Each structure stands twice: as C-alpha cells, then as structure tokens.
Amino acid sequence: MSTMIGPYEQSDAAKAAYDARFERIMACARLERPDRMPVGLQSFFWPANHGGITYKEMMYDYEKAKKVCFDVVAEFEPDGVYPLLMGTGQGLALEKLDFKQLQWPGHGVGEMQPYQYLDREYMTPDEYDDFLFDPTGFYIHKYLPRVAGAFEGFDKLPIFPGLHYFRLVNGIRSFALPEVRASFEKIVAAAEEVNVFLGHHVEWVQRINAAGFPLFNGSNAVAPYDFIADYFRGATGMMKDLYRHKDKLKLVLDKSAVFLTKMAIANAKAAQHPIVFIPIHWAPDAFMSPKQFEEFWWPSFRKMMMGLIEADLIPMPLWEADCTKRLEIIKDIPAGKCIYWFERTDMVRAFEVLGDVVALRGNISPSLLTTGKPEEVDAAVKHLVDNIWNKGGNLMLDGAFGIPDETPTANVRAMFDAARKYAG
Amino acid sequence: MSDMSELEQQLVDWLADMNEDEALALAKKMLLEDKVNPLRVLELCRASMDIVGKRFEEGEYFLPELVLAGEMLETIGAIAKPLIKQGPGEAAKRLGKVLIGTVHGDLHDIGKNIVSFMLDINDFEVKDIGIDVPVAKFIEEINAYQPDVVGLSGFLTLAFDSMKETIDAFESAGMRDKFKIMIGGGQIDETVRAYTGADAFGVNAVEAVNLCRNWMGVAA
Ligand code: B12
C-alpha cells in the first residue's frame, strides 16, 4: 500500500517514518519525551558544496538545487528539515524584481560566495511619522521603490486614502503613466517567477515528505525590533534611536507586532505546518543592556509569540549569539508551546533555566563544525546528550545555526552518528 | 585630567550620560561663542569617552551607547578641528599603531568599529581599512602604515578561511613577524585562532584593548 503526495509515491514504511519523525519534534515541543533525540537539518549553501554545484547554480538552477537539497536529506536522515530552497533558491526572482538589499552569487558577489544583505538606512529617522500614520502608504510611495527597482514607478501612484467619488475616478490617472505601467509589468514578471519557484519548492517538499522526512518548520517570521533594525533603520541607526526617538520607536514596534503576527499566522496556515522559525538578530547579551532589552526588544516580540501560540502555532526563535543573560526574561511564556534554538548561549545553562518551559534546539559550534575533527564533533554531541538529553531535557540536536556552508561532510556525519550513538 | 570648571565638568557629564542634545549645544557654545580653545574641548571629549569606555567594560553600557558616543564625538570634532591653530601634538600619547579591517567576503563592521573606537579612546592610533578587505590591500596598507598590531575581524564562517589566507599571505610576504595579529568577531574562538595562525583572539573590544596593551608592554 502507498499514498501519493503530489507526484510522489509514499510507501507505508515511509509514512510510518514520517509520522515518527514529526511526532518526535512535536513531543519535544510539548515537553514530552520522544523515543529518541531528534536531529534537525538546516543550512544555506552547504548542500551546494556537498553536492558539487556552485552557489550560483543553487540560486538559479531549480533542478540542480532540488537535487542537492534532496540528496543531503536522504543521506543524513534528519527528523526535521528546513525548507532548504527557501533560503537559497530565489536568484531569478530577485533579478526580475531588481532587488537592491542583497548581493548574491553572480550578482554582486562571486559564484561561490553566499548572498549578503546590505545594511543601510532604508527609512530615515524623520520618516517615523509617515510610517506610523500609514504604513501601507509609506511602503507604496517610499519603501518599495527604495528596495527594488521593479517598484520604482510606485512613487507616482496616488495617495489612496482620501480618494472619493469623482476624485477617486480622476485620482487613478497615474496608473496610465509609462513608469507606473513599467513597474506593474516588471512586478508581474517577477511574480510569475516566484510562482515557478514556489512550485519547485512545493514539489521538493512533497518529495522529501514522500521519502519519510517532514519539514521542521513550514514558514519564517521576524521579530518586530529586528524587522525595523535590519530592514528599515539599519543596525546603527536603530541603536541611536533608542536615545533619539525612543517613543516613536516603541509605537512603531507595537504596530509592527500586529501586522507581523498577522502575516506570520497567514504564512504558517498556508504552509500547513505549525512551527514558525524566527531568526533573532538583535537580542544578544552584548548588544543592549538588560533594561533596554526589557524595554525595547522583548515586549513586542512576546506579544507576537503569544499571538502565534493563540493561533495554535509553535514559535521557534533562533536566539543568535550569546543570550545567556536574557534567559530569565524570555522564560516568561506559557510552558510547552515554543522551541528555543540557541546559537552560542550555554545550552546547559539554558536547560537549567528553561528546561520546564520550552524545548531546546542546537547548538554544535560552527567553528568546530567547519574546522574541527569528527571526534571533536562527536564529543560535543556527547556533552549535550550527557548534560541535557540524559537529564530529561527536550533537546533537538543541530548546529548552532544549522550546518555552516564550509562544513566537511565527515563532521556532519559525525554529528548525526553521535546523536544515534548516544541518544537512541 | 587637569582641573575642570563647572561648565567643563557639565560637558563631560552630559557626554558620558548620553544627553546628546544638551552636550552638543554646550560644546557648540563653548567653541563658537565662548571661544574656548578647541584642544581643550577635545580633551574634555576624551575625558568623557574614558568614562564611556569604563562603563562599557563594567557592563553598564552596550552597543547603543558606544555608537551614540562615537557620533557625538564626531560631531564635536567636526566643529572643533577647523578651529585648531597649531597641530594637536597628540601623537606622543599614542601607545602603538593598530591596523584593523574586516576580511574579504565579510561585510560585518559593527564589531570592528567598536574595537576601533575602544582602541582609540585607550590611546592607540588606529587605522581602520574597512570591510571586505582583499589580502593584497591588507599587505599594501601594512607596508604603508607599519602597524604594531594587525586586527582581523570577521563574523561569517567563510571568514575563517579568509583570515587564514590573509595571515598565510603575510607569511609569504615575509612580514609575519613584524607585528602581532589578533582576530575577533562573533564566531571566533580558540579553534579558529589555531586554524588561522593568529597570535590571539578577543571576544570583545575590551579584550582587544588588553591584547594590544600587553603586546605594547603597558600594564593593564
Ligand atoms: C548584525 C548582523 C548582521 C548585520 C550586519 C550589520 C553591520 N553593518 O555589520 C547584517 C544584517 C547586514 C548582516 C548580514 C549578514 N549576516 Co549577519 N549577523 C549579524 C549578527 C546578528 C550580529 C553581528 C554583530 O554585528 N554584532 C555586534 C558586535 C559588536 O557584537 P560582538 O560580536 O559581541 O562584538 C565584539 C566581538 O565580536 C569583538 N570583535 C569584533 N571584531 C573584532 C576584531 C578583533 C581583532 C578583536 C580582537 C575582537 C573583535 O569585539 C566586538 C565588540 O565588543 C550576527 C549574529 C551573531 N551571532 O553574531 C549575524 C551573523 C554573523 N550573520 C550571519 C549571516 C549568515 C549574515 C548574512 C549572510 C545574512 C544574509 N543572508 O544576508 C549577511 C552577510 C553579509 C556579509 N557578507 O558579511 C550569520 C553567520 C553565519 C555563517 N554562516 O557564517 C550570523 C552568525 C547569524 C546567524 N546566526 O546565522 N548581519
């Protein structure tokens, strides 16, 4: 017997394996003990290195990308897989959109270099008021034309609120402008490409599912503070705003939490997967004082996590860098509802503080994975198993931020083997 | 620092306490209306930055304060410098020369900037050669600047290889023993130090300062 998942046949054995893997993750999230310690697989360009294609091919050649991303799953048999194409497969769409916030392989950086985000001020401090008054208007007239060439004509569009009656009729006039038409044509072309890309993504997901492997998360989201810091004010602009524009900043964060939560829920429902991955950029100990963290960073994010939890979703923040001093604060959420993934935070300490509140994910060091020896990776896994898993911790093993691009295969093998050797 | 008037003390406090508007207004008034010697104002700035640096070391201040302090300093410097008549004669105070940059392939610069800032306020002469710095540019800049310490910053795992390549190139160019090399950035640890062949690594700007002080034979 078998079932079809899209074009792919799933055998009964594969279905059983899928269910067992997914249940392992869900059990951990509920703070129940699964039959063995789950292992996650997340990465960006490592499958390209592993499969012998260039980073550029990974971003432009859908078939090659699907193959190398399928091969790593089949080879290492993780319990949960990051939607690998989502992180790397968008070269053509980026190009058609003339996206300006990134440089990517073959477009600003070399064919074997990862893409890079350009940290700039995409919203000036005096635009806080515009954003607050009408975020959509700010997007249409200011933000979109700044971040992607395809939107350049949008600054000519009318100011929509206020259009009424004959004013509404006459007000649409700018849609006929050549630059506005050109924008729409580019956007349609880019959107078609996104559709093609998403078709490949869905097909790849069906293929891994049919082979018995669930996604770890179906969608991604962003914390309000990080959203404004990374994509609007820029890293240092945001830091200065903590002093110069603190009240407006807080209002913007509150407002953003509302629409970011709505968006995250919609995306998770569309992906039909409860786990929402949220990479956390600006929370680390070294970045702001505990007081600033509690005042500026945490409230809007907590609000967002609560919104996701109420929608029956499972937030999975990846707390980047070292967040040891934040543990007591971020503990303040309902038990058994979230997965906290830590990068450099001492996992044993995290387990002590948060063990009865959240499941944990991580955190084999990237320097070890890329430059260490397999036996050192083995020892690092054993350390986590001895001190967390064997003490009842709901740990899901992974690299500190997945598998770094440059990791030798032997070290990935060592990580997966050690999990089975020491934790079932 | 030598005796300060009440007003001077006020400027130092406002700067150190992040009262930007008040501090900048006062500095402007001192420079442009009261015609205070610009070197004196810069000296006051330095005194306030000593306090900022100390608060950072003690864990009271974090990145926002360092970034804001750096900018206040820049603003006042821009007004003061054209008013300076004779050379500041500052060089004598400098403990040593540090050349720093983010290695090629990596664009992260906040950590590097903080390190530069802390070295600067701790009496080192710093030359910051930016981000995504190719190996050849490091060599060229080192030849021109003759630093005592070279700092390599990097946050991406690909930076491990860039650092190694850069340090290997120093070796090939026969300059490896002319200066000390320190590395740092989010993922950098002893494993990476050993891999790249650097002399030391630092997890934060305070460690960077201590490394340089030790190498220059200054008591910590
Ligand atoms: C802020 C940030 C960014 C900002 C950078 C803004 C800027 N102008 O620098 C933006 C958003 C632009 C960005 C972009 C990217 N980033 Co980034 N980023 C970070 C983040 C959150 C913080 C880094 C930072 O600036 N910290 C602030 C500093 C001050 O803190 P600190 O480390 O405590 O600093 C001290 C020490 O590092 C030390 N130090 C620093 N330099 C030196 C030098 C010497 C000589 C010494 C002794 C000490 C020293 O002193 C500092 C001061 O005390 C890290 C997360 C992390 N774990 O670090 C990811 C991180 C480094 N980024 C990452 C990635 C993947 C990227 C991108 C590729 C993302 C993308 N897909 O676009 C791009 C790459 C761009 C590029 N080519 O460089 C990954 C790296 C993973 C990997 N595989 O290598 C990380 C680890 C996030 C993650 N967990 O995945 N990023």
Per-chain topology:
The complex is a heterodimer of chains A (424) and B (220).
Chain A: E1 2-5, E2 8-11, H1 12-29, E3 40-41, H2 46-51, H3 55-60, H4 62-76, E4 80-81, H5 84-88, H6 91-97, E5 102-105, E6 108-109, E7 116-117, H7 128-133, H8 135-147, H9 165-171, H10 178-210, E8 219-220, H11 224-233, H12 235-244, H13 246-271, E9 275-280, H14 290-310, E10 314-319, H15 327-330, E11 339-342, H16 347-354, E12 359-364, H17 366-371, H18 374-387, E13 395-399, H19 409-422
Parallel strand pairs in A: 3-4, 5-6, 8-9, 9-10, 10-11, 11-12, 12-13
Antiparallel strand pairs in A: 1-2, 5-7
Helix pairs in contact in A: 4-10, 6-10, 11-12, 11-13, 13-14, 18-19
Chain B: H1 6-16, H2 20-33, H3 38-57, H4 63-80, E1 97-102, H5 110-121, E2 125-128, H6 135-145, E3 149-153, H7 158-172, E4 180-184, H8 190-196, E5 200-202, H9 205-215
Parallel strand pairs in B: 1-2, 1-3, 3-4, 4-5
Helix pairs in contact in B: 1-2, 1-3, 2-4, 3-4, 5-9, 6-7
Characterization of the model:
The complex is a heterodimer of chains A (424) and B (220). Chain A is of the alpha/beta class. Chain A is 54% helix and 12% strand. Chain A has a domain at 18-42 and 216-424: TIM Barrel, CATH 3.20.20.210. Chain B folds into two domains: 6-83, Orthogonal Bundle (Methyltransferase, Methionine Synthase (B12-binding Domains), Chain A, domain 1), CATH 1.10.1240.10; 90-215, 3-Layer(aba) Sandwich (Rossmann fold), CATH 3.40.50. Chain B contains nine helices and five strands. Chain B has helices at residues 6-16, 20-33, 38-57, 63-80, 110-121, 135-145, 158-172, 190-196, 205-215; strands at 97-102, 125-128, 149-153, 180-184, 200-202. Chain B has a five-stranded parallel beta sheet, with helices on both faces. Chain B starts with 5 loop residues before the first helix and ends in a 5-residue tail after the last helix. Chain A binds chain B through residues 109, 113-114, 116, 118-119, 235-236, 239-240, 242-244, 286-289, 292, 321, 344, 365-368, 370-372, 404-406, and chain B through 18, 20, 60-64, 67-68, 71, 105, 107, 110, 156-158, 160-161, 186-189, 191-192, 195, 204. Cobalamin sits between chains B (63, 106-112, 114-115, 151-153, 155-157, 182-186, 202-205, 208) and A (114-117, 119, 230, 235, 281, 286, 320-321, 343, 401, 404-405).
